[in-house]
Amino acid sequence: TGLNAAIRSKGKKYFGFCSDSNLINNGDNQAILKAEAGQLTGENSMKWESIQPNQGSYSWSGADTLVNFALNNNMIVRGHTFVWHQQIPQWLKNINNKQTLTSAIQSHIAAVAGRYKGKIYAWDVANEVFEDNGSRRSSVFSNVFNDWTFLDVAFNAAKAADPDAKLCLNDYNLDYSSSKLTNFVQLVKDLKSRNVPIDCVGTQSHLVVGNGAIPSYKSTLDSLATTNTEVQITELDIRTSSSPSQQQMNQQVTDYKTVATACMRTSSCSGITIWGVSDRDSWVPGVFNGEGYALLWDNNYRKKSAYQGFLDGI
Ligand code: XIL
After folding, report:
1. How far is the CA of 240 from the centre of ligand 1 (A)?
2. From CA 262, how far away is CA 220, in angstroms rounded?
3. How far does the centroid of ligand 1 lie from the alpha carbon of residue 40, in Å?
């Protein structure tokens, strides 16, 4: 039903949201998930610090809740995420040699991807590995390896643990032409040329109402499509002032429509995930001072005009 039915009727694979147990168990929010979503991503429950906070001890309840709810309600799951510089435990950050880090990556991915084998549509095997200037981002992974081969380790481990899941490289600020976008595309091509199993690219798409990136968003999807992998819009939101003007609200309707249409017109774009349901629960106000109003439902779980804009774009 809802947005998922609409996008599927036009040949795409899914529409969905991020969620986790607290919002799954919130009645208003749950009703919207059931009516609109064909896909869920764990907002936090599958991150390394959530699942393996202490080395060798795994905590599954949040991720299990998400996966079980999704599968029981006919939704597919995007797994998020393994190799990332954020929301990782201190014990992992302390590792300073390649052999120990390789086995930590391999055992984490074997455990997590193995537990959910056959239940995950796509894994964000690595997240945000570029700085905004297009250079390799500093992290425990890049610092210890001092090259890109931590990605080879991670993608190969995920392939071994769940051969049918699509394996993605995910990042943000890929929304306009830049050296970050160019280098991201080149990295995916390089990984493929050395037979690293990568199937998809994720463009987070944390956008800003009225931003110049939005009218040319289709051309960035086209750039991502040159990797010959599936393109997924993984964390869409379009933020503005937390108390927007009428003009900003209207612009948001247009911008949601533009993004939806860009995916519809890109054959390799397979689906769209919006990073939350209600503005009340969005991550935006906590991170971007004075900004908010980024999603399709308002603080009281009522549909905003942007919902219709997005639907019109499908
Ligand atoms: C965010 C969550 O929404 C917040 O609840 C959490 O406090 C921080 O992380 N890019 C990502 C997501 O890949 O995992 C982030 O999610 C948002 C930015």
Report:
1. 18
2. 9
3. 14
Kindly list the catalytic residues. Answer: 128, 235
With the CA atoms of 201, 202, 205 and 206 taken in that order, what torsion angle do they form, in degrees rounded to the nearest 10?
-140
The Cβ of residue 61 has, within 10 Å, a number of other Cβ atoms equal to 10
227 lines ligand 1 (CB under 6 A): no
Question: Looking at ligand 1, which atom is closest to the CA of residue 127?
Answer: 13
Q: For the segment 126-171, what is each residue's pLDDT rounded down to a tens digit?
A: 999 999 999 999 999 999 999 999 999 999 999 999 999 999 999 9
* pLDDT number for residue 286: 98
Task: Give the residue from 209, 189, 210 showing the smallest Cα distance to 198.
Answer: 189
Q: Measured in angstroms, how far is the CA atom of residue 119 from the centroid of ligand 1?
A: 22
Q: Which of 253-287 are b and which e, b meaning 16 or more Cβ less than 10 Å from the residue's Cβ?
A: bbbbbbbbbbbbebebbbbbbbbbbbbbbbbbbee
Q: Is residue 229 lining ligand 1, measured as CB closer than 6 Å?
A: no
- pLDDT score, position 145: 98
* Structural domains of the chain ordered from first start: 2-313 (3.20.20.80)
Regions of the chain with pLDDT less than 50: none
* Nearest residue (CA) to ligand 1, atom 4: 283
Ligand 1 nearest atom to the CA of residue 282, by list position? 3
Could you tell which of 17, 18, 44 is best to mutate to test the pocket of ligand 1, judged by most ligand atoms within 8 Å of the CB? 44
CA distance 237 to 74: 24
Instruction: Give the distance (Å) from ligand 1 centre to CA of residue 193.
Output: 31
Look up the ipTM and state it.
Answer: 0.99
* Beta-bridge partners for 303: 297
235 lines ligand 1 (CB under 6 A): yes
What is the chain's mean pLDDT, rounded? 98
Report residue 145 as tokens.
Answer: 């390896």
120, 125, 132, 208, 293 from 19: Cα distances, Å: 15, 19, 27, 22, 18
